[in-house]
Amino acid sequence: MPHRTFIWFILPSALAMLIFIALPIVSILVQSLFVENERVLVTVENCGPFGCQKEVRVDAQATAALQREHPLGRFNGLGTYGNRSHLAFSEIAAIWNARPTLAGFLSEVMTLPFYRALAFTLAYTAVVTPLVIALGFFIALAVDALPRMVKGPVIFMSLLPMMITPLIGSLVLFWMIDSNGIIGASIQALANDPSLSLKASATLAWITLFVYGIWHSAPFAFVVFYAGLQTVPQDTMESAMIDGASRWERVRYVVLPHLSPLVVFVALIQLMDNFRVFEPIVGFSAQANATSLSFNIYNDLRSTGTPLFGSAAATSVLTLAGVALLLTPVLVRTWRDFKRSR
Amino acid sequence: MKTIYGFAMAASALALSTGSAFAGCGIDKGSVRILSNDFPALQEVVAAASKCAGDGVTVTKNLTTEHEQLMVPALSANPSEYTSVFVATSSIQPLVANSLIRPLDDYVATYGKGIADKQKISIGGKVMAIAFDANAQHLFYRADILEEAGVEPPKTYEEMLAAAEAIRGKGLMQYPIAGTYKAGWNLAEEFVNMYIGFGGAFFEPGSAKPAIDNEKGVAALEMMKKLSAYMNPDFLTFDSNSVQAEFEAGNAALSNFWGSRYGAVIDDQGSTEKITSEIKIGPAPTVGGGSIPATTLWWDGFTVARNISDEDAAATFQALTHGASAEMANAHTNDAVWLIDGYEPGVEAEVVLKTLSMGGKTYPAGPYMGLMHTALGNEIVSFMQGKENAEKALADTEAAYTAAAKEQGYL
Predict the structure, then answer these.
(1) What does the pLDDT average to over A125-143?
(2) What Pfam families does its record include (chain A) (predicted)?
C-alpha cells in the first residue's frame, strides 16, 4: 500500500484515537500535577433543628476569586504521586527504619492504600489471566469434541457468564455465598463449621474474587480458542494421527502451536482487563479485604462530597504505567515475530 | 428582586381572586425541577409538591441515591439542571462551599408563614435550607428475646454487651447484635457515633487539623471491636438493608440502627407479625459513663439553586413549602420524624426527641468532615479485622485525612 493511501486509510481511526484516548491521557497527566486552591475558611454561627453552634465554613466568594485566578488549582508537581495515598515515599522510609524484619516491613507497607490495592491487583492479574486461558482452552477442546447436535446449546450456555453484567453477576454470587445463601450454607455444612464465612476472611475473599474473575472471563477465552480450533489444518492432524500421535500429543504439537497467536491475543486482553479489576469488589462488598487501583480511583471520586481529582488522576497515571509495564513483554514478543516474518 | 416577589405575590393573589385553579399551591408559573435522594420521607414531600403542577407550572423530579454525585455539576451549570436539591446535614456542604444555592430569607418572609424556626438551617446568619425531617440512629431491640434472657433494654453500650452475652449464653441467638458496619461510609458513621458518645472532637478548634488520635478514639474503637464479637462474622459487609433483613429474619436482637428504617422494619413485608410486634425502640445508648447518647442527629431538607431565574426560584420554594406541609406529615406519620409544626409525633418521633433532650449531638458537618469520614471508613477496617491496634488505625486515619485535606486546600 502506498504511504499516501495508508495515511488516508488510517486517518479517521487516528483522529478518533487522538480525541478519545490521547487527549484524555494528557488531561489526567495535567490534572495529576495540580491540587485544589487553598480554601479560605471563616468561622460563622450556624443554626438548625438541633440548636446553634459556631462552625468553620468555606468563604465561598474568596475561594471562588482564587479559583478564577488559578482555574487549574495550585501546581504541586509530582507531590501527589509521592503522598501517602500513592507511592508514599516518606512513609515507606519511616517504616523501613522502624521495622528490622522484612515480614514486618511488608505487612506494614500493606496498610498503605496504594500498595494494598497494588498487591490485590497484581495477584488478581497473575492468578486469573493464566487460569482463564487454560480453562477457556479446555472448554474449547471439550466443546469441539461434542457431537454437532448439542454443540449449539452448550456454546450458548458456556457464554452465559460473559453476557451477565459484571456488577450483577458479582451481586448474584455475593448473595449465593452469604452464610444464608445456597453456596455459603453448603460450604458451612461440608466443612462442618457454622462460623465459616467467605466474606469475613481476607484469604477466602481473595479466592472468591479470583473464582468470580475466572468464571466471568473464561467464556471469552473459550470463544476465541473455539474459533481458532475450527481453522486447525485437518491434513496436519491426520498425518499426526497416522504417525500414531495420541490426543494429548496432537493438542501439544499441532493445536497449541497453531493457536499460539490467539493465546498472545487473549493474554493481552486479559492482562489489561484484569489489571483494571473493579466491579467484583463493589459487587462483593469486598473493600474490607481487597481493593484495586481502579477501586481507589472510584473511592477518590465518589466517597467524599468534593472529589479528589488530583489524587484520582495520579492513580490513573500509575495504573497506565502498570498496564504498560505488564504488556511490555507481550508486545516485545509480538514485535520480534513481526520483524522475523518480514 | 423585591419587585419580582411583589409582582409574583400580586399575580398569585390575582390568580386566586379570579378563581382560576392552579392546583391549590398559589403559583401561577415557573418550572420546578427536583433532585433528591430516594427514601420514603423524601418521596412523600416530592409527591405532595408534584401536585402543584398545572397551568404554566411544571414539576419534574429525579429521586436517586446518586444525588450527591449529580448535584454539584448539575447546579454549576447556568441555568442549572435542577431548581432544588434535597440535602442532609452533610450533603449541603459542597453546595454551600461552591455557592450553588441561594439564601432563602426573603422567600421565607414572603411565602413561608408556616415554616417553624427549628426548620430553618441558617449558615452564617442566612437561611440556606428548610429542614423537614430528623433522623438518628438509636436502639432497636427484640423485647421478647431480652425478656427471655432476663435483661432490661440496655441504656449503655456496656449493658448492651452484657445483654448480648446473656442472650448468647442462653443459646437464644448466636449473633444477637447487628450493626451497619460495612467498610466505608457506614463503618465510619458508627465510629463517629461512638466517638461522640465518648465526648470526642474531630478537629482542633477552628482549624482543619485532625484530632482523633487520642484516648477517646481508642476507647471508641475498642468498644466497636467488643460489639463486633457479637455480630455475624460478615459484619464488615452489612449496610442498612442487611441489618433490616437480619431483624426481619429474627436473627438480631440489638442494634443501633437508623430511625428512618423503623417503619420499614415493622411493616407487613419481609417478616412475620410474631417478630415485628416484638421489635421496640429506645434512645441511643450512652457509652463509657458519659451522658450523651452515642449517636448523631441528622436532618433532611430542601434548598433552592442559585443559577436559575427568580421566577423559577419562587415557584420552587412555594411548591416545596406546599410539599412539606403539616397535612402531608400527618398523612405519613410513620415515614419520618417530621420537624413540621402541627404534626402529631408518633413513637419514632418521641425516641428521636428523647435522644435530642438527652443532649444528642448533631452530625459534625464541617467542610472537611467528609474527608475525615472517608479516611475513617478506609483506615479503621484493619483494626476491626484484628490486623492492627487502635492507635495505629487512628494514626493511619489522621495521615490519610491529612493527605486528602492538603490536596483539597484545607491544610
Answers:
(1) 95
(2) BPD_transp_1
